[in-house]
Design a protein that fits this description.
Largest sheet: 8 strands, parallel
Radius of gyration: 16 Å
Number of strands: 8
Number of helices: 7
Bound molecules: D-xylitol-5-phosphate, zinc ion
Helix content: 25-40%
Strand order of the largest sheet: 1-8-7-6-5-4-3-2
């Protein structure tokens, strides 16, 4: 059975002076989600953008707002990100102090009407997230160390995707698998073979003349 593949362009790589146009372009060229990378300069060594930008972005397009918060203390901000426009809010397992906190944040996201995602960094063992999959709508496997666009894909992500695909299918769960970092046609194909559902891509999709063909290629 052929799985449908979704593409979620990461606007971290967009031209912020033309953000509205950039979003219209990816929407017209076949994107399904808009990947919104929030970085706090503490959980990751970079600072990107936050709630005021999300407020403007939300409602300016018909894509799913796929918000990836690479921040410390996600529990404190979860409700505000959902209320400001996140359709999916994905936080980091490594930013949580306990299993209880992970579950509390998932509940906060659901109670505010959004889908809950959990992300794991390259060094985190995929086994550490399996127990949450029955509550999650999305599991984001980082194939780069979070913090920057334009990094090289880390093949260690492929085995994690295979383990997740197996577990989700054998337990008949509805959790989508997303991969993020260094995705292009070649690495995207490897991730699709491994069982991914959603491909995040930033530098591969922004500032290029063949954006439509590239998005179509990733979805094939
Ligand atoms: C990295 C971000 C990724 C990044 C992807 O911390 O989470 O979404 O923007 O950018 P590329 O596709 O250029 O690796
Ligand atoms: Zn991201």
């Amino acid at each position: 059975m052929k799985r449908r593949i979704y593409v979620s362009p990461s606007i971290l790589s967009a031209d912020f002076l033309r953000l509205g146009e950039e979003i219209k372009s990816i929407e017209a060229n076949g994107a399904d989600y808009l990947h919104f990378d929030v970085m706090d300069g503490h959980f990751v060594p970079n600072i990107s953008f936050g709630l005021p930008v999300l407020k403007n972005v939300k409602g300016s397009h018909g894509l799913v707002n796929d918000v990836h918060i690479m921040i410390s203390n996600p529990k404190f901000y979860a409700e505000r990100f959902v209320k400001t426009g996140a359709d999916i809010l994905t936080f980091h397992l490594e930013a949580c102090e306990s299993e209880q906190e992970v579950r509390e944040i998932i509940d906060i996201i659901h109670q505010n009407g959004a889908k809950a995602g959990l992300s794991i960094k390259p060094k985190t063992d995929v086994k550490d997230c399996l127990k949450y999959l029955d509550q999650l709508d999305l599991l984001l496997v980082m194939s780069v160390e979070p913090g920057f666009g334009g990094q090289a894909f880390m093949p260690s992500a492929l085995e994690k995707i295979r383990v997740l695909r197996d577990y989700i299918d054998s337990h008949k769960l509805n959790c989508l698998i997303e991969v993020d970092g260094g995705i292009n046609q070649e690495t995207g194909d490897l991730c699709k073979e491994a069982g991914v559902d959603i491909l995040v891509a930033g530098s591969y999709l922004f500032g290029v003349a063949d954006q439509k063909e590239r998005i179509e290629g990733l979805k094939k």
